[in-house]
Amino acid sequence: MTAIDGDLPELDPVIHAQARLRVVAALSQLDGGDRIAFPRLQEILRMTAGNLSVHLRKLEEAGYVEVTKTHRGRTPATLVHLTNRGRFAFEEYVNALRTLIQPGEETS
């Protein structure tokens, strides 16, 4: 049965919001254990600190990202990374999109 026959995949609602999709897509470019500083992620995504914080909180509640508050010397730092669960969820999301866009083609 192909997706066009009615077996359409569900898109993860946590990732599907445009801002969260941008966050997860950006974080997916990091190697598995790498983290990015909050201000750098904010700069890349061109989001306000408040807006980014709200979306990171939602992703963190789903277990898709981990936010770590630490210090670099005496300066507080907030680091963000995509968890294994988040990486898998994003891969599933991308595969679901491919199925919707290209029904009948196999996804990896």
TrEMBL record:
SUPFAM superfamilies tied to this protein: Winged helix' DNA-binding domain
UniProt GO MF annotations: DNA binding
Cited InterPro entries: ArsR-like_HTH (IPR011991), WH-like_DNA-bd_sf (IPR036388), WH_DNA-bd_dom (IPR027395), WH_DNA-bd_sf (IPR036390)
Record keywords: DNA-binding
Domain Winged helix DNA-binding residues, every copy: 20-101
Gene3D superfamilies (alphabetical): Winged helix-like DNA-binding domain superfamily/Winged helix DNA-binding domain (1.10.10.10)
A Pfam family this chain is assigned to: HTH_34
The protein's name: Winged helix DNA-binding protein
Species assigned in the record: Actinoplanes italicus
